[in-house]
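Reminder to self: tokens first, then the designed residues, so the page reads top to bottom the way the pipeline ran.
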């Protein structure tokens, strides 16, 4: 008998009829990791699959992501392209919703604390491989030019967001950075919401402290706003531990390509490191950052000035970033609350250790 759960069950009958040979469903259990889409471990009489329910429902964009992963796999990038149905399609549109069936990858997520120095070098090289291979596959595919990229640098919902910073803007405007005046306004709005909360708890107290602290830091560093970046390339867009599966010591699959788009590539490398290598108290493990960054620079041929500029821009992004508080106080969504302590401490620590961080990435 098919085991279900309290949330909406995918239309398994209609879905599986589209494919040749997936077998009969045995169980469909939700995968709780992740914040933006719904995922399920689907077990059938023929094996196990990852069933993804794309909540944004952009059929064209999802199909493009699928084509990209298929091409990346042919170049040796560890990915998990979707299963093709009997009609050669990878996106199933049922009742207006978009679904995709992927092979189930047995593996585990590993952050920087669980990686050796050698594995950190391999991680940097892997992201470099992603960027160079994306340049190949996107550059030769009709209709997959930058005009179709998401161009968004925001990561809210995946644990690496810059919920206040402006992402990749189209055209000659380049890739703008956050305006501190807008951030000051947002801080005031969030402070009002924090202080109006009933039965204030430890999270509310920490949020108020960090908002006041960040306002002071921005007042001190308001003249450090970076100019727009002008160079961008195709990036994964959401490269962090929950989107990388390891089998033993080796990466088995990079998953979740929903944010595929055009951004400054080196910034994705810095942004990813700030997630992989952040420690609970908010410091970065700089020895591992250094190993990772050197391997990335070698893989893509980036010079130290490009990386140093990316470090500055991502630092500024973090200094202006309040997406977790916006989710909690403006959207009444607390799923990202557990990330707040380390993420908010990182901005403060990074400001204090700015030169050491830049040296770790660029030296």
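Designed residues (363 positions):
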């Amino acid at each position: 008998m098919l085991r279900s759960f309290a949330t909406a069950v995918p239309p398994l009958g209609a879905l599986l009829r589209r494919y040749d040979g997936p077998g009969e469903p045995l169980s469909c259990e939700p995968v709780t990791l992740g914040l933006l889409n719904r995922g399920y471990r689907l077990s059938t009489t023929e094996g196990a699959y990852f069933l993804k329910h794309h909540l944004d429902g952009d059929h064209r964009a999802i199909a493009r992501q699928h084509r990209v992963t298929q091409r990346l796999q042919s170049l040796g990038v560890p990915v998990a392209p979707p299963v093709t149905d009997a009609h050669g399609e990878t996106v199933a549109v049922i009742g207006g919703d978009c679904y995709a069936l992927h092979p189930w990858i047995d593996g585990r997520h590993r952050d920087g604390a669980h990686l050796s120095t050698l594995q950190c070098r391999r991680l940097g090289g892997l992201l470099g491989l992603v960027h160079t291979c994306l340049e190949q596959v996107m550059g030769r595919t009709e209709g997959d030019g930058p005009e179709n990229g998401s161009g968004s640098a925001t990561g809210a919902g995946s644990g690496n967001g810059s919920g206040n910073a402006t992402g990749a803007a189209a055209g000659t405007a380049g890739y703008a950075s956050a305006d501190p005046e807008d951030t000051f306004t947002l801080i005031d709005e969030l402070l009002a919401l924090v202080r109006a909360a009933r039965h204030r708890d430890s999270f509310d107290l920490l949020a108020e402290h960090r908002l006041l602290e960040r306002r002071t830091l921005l007042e001190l560093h308001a003249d450090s706003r970076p100019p727009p970046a002008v160079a961008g390339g195709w990036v994964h867009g959401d490269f962090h531990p929950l989107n990388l599966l390891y089998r033993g010591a080796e990466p088995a699959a990079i998953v979740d390509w929903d944010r595929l788009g055009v951004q400054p590539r080196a910034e994705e490398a810095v942004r990813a490191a700030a997630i992989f290598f952040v420690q609970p108290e908010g410091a970065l493990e700089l020895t591992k950052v250094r190993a990772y960054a050197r391997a990335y620079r070698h893989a893509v041929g980036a010079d130290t000035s490009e990386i140093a500029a990316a470090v500055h821009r991502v630092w500024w992004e973090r200094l202006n970033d309040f997406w977790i508080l916006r989710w909690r106080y403006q959207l009444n969504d607390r799923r990202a609350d557990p990330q707040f302590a380390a993420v908010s401490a990182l901005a403060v620590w990074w400001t204090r250790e700015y030169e050491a961080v830049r040296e770790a990435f660029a030296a």
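The chain has two domains: 12-103, 112-362.
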